[in-house]
Design goal:
Blueprint lengths: L3 H7 L1 E2 L13 E10 L2 E11 L8 H16 L8 H7 L9 H18 L3 E8 L2 H8 L1 H17 L6 E6 L2 E7 L3 H17 L11 E7 L6 H17 L5
Antiparallel strand pairs: 1-2, 2-3, 4-6, 4-7, 5-6
Helix pairs in contact: 5-6
Length: 241
C-alpha cells in the first residue's frame, strides 16, 4: 500500500491549504496539487460532507493515492520530456520520427527471433503528393499529411507504432503480426483513406502501401528496402486516375 511518505519518492504530492478555513457550503474541500519532477501537472480536489469527515481514513487515502500514482505518475514514459518530444517525434504529424524508428524495429526483431512472435511492416506514401502541393500549396499539403496520420492512428492497435519515414512516406511497425494479418490491415486502412474526402481539395487522397514480414535473418535496412520495393510495385500496378 502506498503511504504518504512514499509519494515524495515517486512524484510529489503537496497538501494545499483548506479553503475558507476548511469549510465550504456543504462540507470540507481539500485540494492536493500534483507535481512531477518539480513541475505542476494538475491537482486533485476532494469534497467531503460534514457527516463523512470522520470516515475519511488513511485506507481511503491510500486507495485514492495508489490509483493516481499508478495511473499518472509511476510510469515515467507517460510524461516524456521536451527533449524527447523534439528528438523522437515529428512536429507536424505527431508520429515518431526516424530517430526512434530503428530502436523500435531492432527491439521487435530481437523479440521475434527469441519468441517467434512474427513482425511485419507497412510502408506507405500519399499518391501524387507533389501534385497536391503544387496545386493547393504546402500548407494544404501539410494538412493532408496530418489528416492521413490521424486516420491511421485511430485505426491501428495500441501496440502498433507509426513513424514518419521521410517526406510523405510513413512506416507502421506491427509487432506480433504475420504477412497475412498485415495485408488485412493494409486493405482496411486503404479503404478508409480512399473514402475520406479532404475538406479543402474536395477529393480523396489515396495512398500506396508496401507490406513485408520480417524473416529473422535480414538486417533492418534490408527489411525496409523490401518494403520500399513492394511499395514501388503497388504504385506501378495502380490504375491511372
Amino acid at each position: 500500500m502506498v503511504r504518504q511518505d512514499d509519494i515524495r519518492d515517486i512524484g510529489r504530492l503537496d497538501y494545499g491549504e483548506r479553503f475558507e478555513e476548511g469549510k465550504t457550503l456543504n462540507g470540507y474541500r481539500f485540494v492536493y496539487p500534483l507535481f512531477y519532477k518539480d513541475e505542476s501537472i494538475g491537482c486533485v480536489e476532494i469534497g467531503i460532507s460534514y457527516s463523512a469527515v470522520m470516515e475519511l481514513t488513511m485506507e481511503l487515502f491510500n486507495i485514492q493515492t495508489e490509483f493516481l500514482v499508478n495511473k499518472q505518475i509511476a510510469d515515467e514514459n507517460v510524461w516524456p520530456s521536451l527533449v524527447d518530444q523534439i528528438t523522437y517525434f515529428d512536429k507536424l504529424t505527431k508520429a515518431y520520427n526516424r530517430n526512434k524508428m530503428y530502436d523500435f524495429i531492432e527491439l521487435e526483431m530481437k523479440w521475434d527471433c527469441r519468441y517467434k512472435t512474427n513482425m511485419s511492416l507497412i510502408l506507405f506514401d500519399v499518391d501524387d503528393f507533389k501534385i497536391v502541393n503544387d496545386t493547393y500549396g504546402h500548407i494544404i499539403g501539410d494538412e493532408v499529411l496530418k489528416q492521413r496520420c490521424k486516420i491511421v492512428q485511430v485505426n491501428i492497435r495500441l501496440n502498433d507504432i507509426l513513424f514518419r519515414y521521410g517526406g510523405d512516406e510513413f512506416l507502421i511497425l506491427l509487432p506480433g503480426t504475420d504477412n497475412f494479418e498485415a495485408k488485412l490491415l493494409a486493405i482496411k486502412l486503404r479503404d478508409i483513406l480512399n473514402l475520406d474526402i479532404h475538406k479543402v481539395t474536395d477529393k480523396s487522397v489515396s495512398i500506396s502501401m508496401g507490406i513485408v514480414q520480417y524473416d529473422r535473418l535480414e538486417s533492418i535496412e534490408h527489411l525496409i528496402q523490401r518494403a520500399d520495393v513492394d511499395l514501388y510495385e503497388a504504385k506501378k500496378h495502380k490504375p491511372k486516375k
